[in-house]
Amino acid sequence: MNTIYSLIRSKTETWVKLEKENNQSLINNTLRHIGEAGRLRPPQREAIETYLWIKFAGNNKRLSDMVREGILYDDVTAQEYDYYYTFKGNYVTQFLNQFFQDNKLKALNKKLVNDPEGIYWDNLLDELLHNFDYSNYLFSLPMGAGKTYLMACFIYLDLYFASLFKNDRRFAHNFVVFAPQASKTAILPSLRTIKEFNPEWILPKEEADKLKQVITIEILDSLSSKRKDKLHGNNPNLEKVNRIKQSKDFGTVFITNAEKVVLERYDEEDQIYVDPKNMYYDEKKASELKKTNELREALSQVPNLTVILDEVHHSYGSTGNGEKKLRQAVGVLNQHGNVNSVIGLSGTPYVKTKIEIEGKNITLNQIQDIVYNYPLNIGIGKFLKKPDIRKVSVKESRFIEQALTDFFSDYDVEYENGTKSKAAFYCPSIKKLNEDILPIVQNWYQKHRKGREDEIFRYYSGVDKKNKQYQLPKENLAIFNNLDKPYSKKRIILLVAVGTEGWDCRSLTSVVLPRQKTTKNFVLQTTCRCLREVTDASNENALIYLSSDNYETLDKELRANYQLSITDLSEKKEQSIDVQVRKPKLGRLKYKQIETKYRIVKKSSPEIKKELVAFRFAGIKKSFDYDKSILSGRIGTSGLTGEVAVADVRAEATALFSFDDFMYNLSLCTYGLFSQKDLLEDYADTLRAIHDSIEKEMEWLILNPNLDISGINRMIASSFMDRVEYTKEVIEQETEIELLEWQGSNKEISLVSPDGKVYKIMPRIPERDLLGKRGYANDPKNIEEDFFGDENNCDPQDISYNYVPYKMDSEFEQNALAEMLKLSELKDLEVYFNGYKDERLQSFWIQTPRGRYTPDFLILRRKENRKYKKGQTIPIEKALIIETKGEPYYNDEFKAKEKFVEQEFLKYNKHFKYHCFVDKGKNDFTRHLDTFKKLLEDF
């Protein structure tokens, strides 16, 4: 299925790959530091890559605008859908065409095909993507993936880029982090861990230290704003906000519950009275409302704000008043238009939502503005424990006893960090816990763990009059909050109405639901609590004990919320397909790797005054000469003829060039070696003469297209610098590889990324077919028949495809190979794609001063123009390197590598040729065919 997050992930992977090839890239440096720090999990790193793509490539735009502008468009994917040519060129209808087909909305798709120019499709796109007034991005990561620290990553990265690009609205200066509601007792405390995050995990120490000094993180967890405390009726949360706002407007982070912002007097009616631009504006009423809602007003005035929503799935759908409190709170904060963007995090993105199309409600099983999705089952064995889910259909007392026996028999573990494994029993009520379940647990302990009854722990809150006798000691809250500490002796945790969302107890190793049947969401939330990794999830297991009813409930909820079944909750690899090696040994390729070293052989200090006296502007004019004449010509039979000079270009006014300015700029160009005072004391007369000579030539300098005053200053400053003489040494390293030979026995290629997106494959495997019509993952030999048969041969001349399928990075690469294979000019040559993931395939590469360069394609000419034959060794005589590059990525970093290949590598490897084809944005290689054919002719 084609989704927003699969489109974004595909774009992100290509973008990140190209950024990583650029040593000067800010993105490359950031991601490299994150990788070297090694503190983040794969889903956190991938989510950050997506975040960076959204900010830098997507420009923080609304998702619907990204669709409209074609930022998310993928032509290869679009061609796999019916009616592609009906909508070619219209990004909105192409997207809707794919969406309707994926979701089997046949009537809507038919209407779209019949009326592609309809004015309502644009509005439908907005409704489909939830139509918020701000950029809204949902990151879906399963429990245990580290969502709270990911929030901290987003905060610090935004502040870092905001400090570099101070006026750039893409990056926030301040933040509000919302937990969904106060009743979720574990969520707000878990958000406090944002304070504990070390920004050195994502930024160099120097930059991290700067941000630590400016960031202020404040928890707004005092009494509700609707109540008055004892300090003169003031709101303590409001006092915190106002105190911080008075002293700073950058780097503030407020963490709170939505209820503390959404107050009793906020609705649409209020807006008409409080907005001065509205005709119904009432100053007196606006003042009253402002006093009533001071906290929300104070937060809404915080400038350049990003709002982060934890457990954001709570904000979708509707409540009695038509809107969820989390989303209503965002509207409150955005009443003055200060919200930069909203970032939501959730582990359950498959919430049913409804959109209205032509008066009919259509129910969707998934939130549509997900920008990153990491499925729960992919995390099993990586950062989540491997669960053993047991269904037991026995009476409650035996069920509980068996759960205890199995837990202590198979899951009694002391982890490397000193914590001991624990089992949580989720009980239906306080009375049931104390009167039925606790006695069973205590009796089991008397038989099997006598003398260790202090391992049993109860925790719940909100004891009413009926259960007053079961009131817990006050210290139980502190014990509950410290269960995951090595000194905690508690092993069996009996809970009521707590410990679902947000409870972070990594040493929790087992979950037991004693009651026979409970609510759907409760089963899903509680059973996953015990999956959090302690130290190494690949060696950690968890036990989930369920009745048959709850087992069936869990299965249904996994399908509905994660699109998984219980059988999916086992350690799984990414979907992959065995590669079919068609030409395993293409022959040996010999070439020389070239390294240039420079060695200083002499260093000398200049005779400064002598060089300054010798300065002549005439020499500069000769070196940087240009013609300021205006020429006139006429069109003749052989082009422009009869050119004559009719005038000279003149500067309208000569710029002021004071001696003080000259001295100041000259001092800067010496990089601190000489101050203005030093220059004046030792060289004033000589420099004044130079200034006068320059001043006389200011018009020439103003008009010169090749030189300006800063260049003149650098030339003069060079008179003050030490001189060095050096020798250049070229080191030739003879290299010989068995071209494209497989390394290792595991020959497989990832077919589907963790978020479900089918990679670009050549031969192209349609996304809708997933594993192919004939199941290539199960029987890869079918690839040979389907793509290389007599009727459907991707390589009719048998000159390519040493292995299939190829996973490629861009459409331009795919189209280039497809067009190459059609050419008769290649009949005596061979063309091969040069690359494979994880370097398990020995590829051809060139070492350059700017890093390793691996070209896209190699075209080979063998001895006597013979071609590859299995079992025969036919020497390779010549190789043509072909590169394909999108114009945005044909940048200075790549050009530097290309320059080395052309000027150095080819000089010492005469049997190689090189050419780069630059795409102008259409992914169309046919426009380059004439050039390519000429290359083959000369080759």
UniProtKB/TrEMBL annotation:
Q: Which organism is it from?
A: Limihaloglobus sulfuriphilus
List the GO cellular component terms.
cytosol
Q: PANTHER family from the xrefs?
A: ATP-DEPENDENT HELICASE IRC3-RELATED (PTHR47396:SF1), TYPE I RESTRICTION ENZYME ECOKI R PROTEIN (PTHR47396)
Q: One MF term from GO for this chain? A: ATP binding
Q: Where is the Helicase/UvrB N-terminal domain?
A: 133-349
Q: What protein name applies here? A: Type III restriction enzyme, res subunit
Q: Return the Pfam families for the record.
A: ResIII
Top-level lineage group: Bacteria
List residues traversing the bilayer. none
